[in-house]
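note to self — DONT lose this again. spent like an hour looking for the file last time. sequence + predicted structure for the chain T wanted, 55 res
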Amino acid sequence: MMLWNAIQARIASEDGASLVEYALLVALIAIVAIAAIQFVGGEVSTAFVDIGSSL
């Protein structure tokens, strides 16, 4: 009976849900950062090349 109660308590626990939510949030931030880098990356590269050439 104690084992059954322990199993039910483990199933009802929401500790793992927070971890999953944080993992999804980190993944979303990473996707947005990668998209922003690819969108602006060429312009930044050109700016650095221009600055390097002027030096």
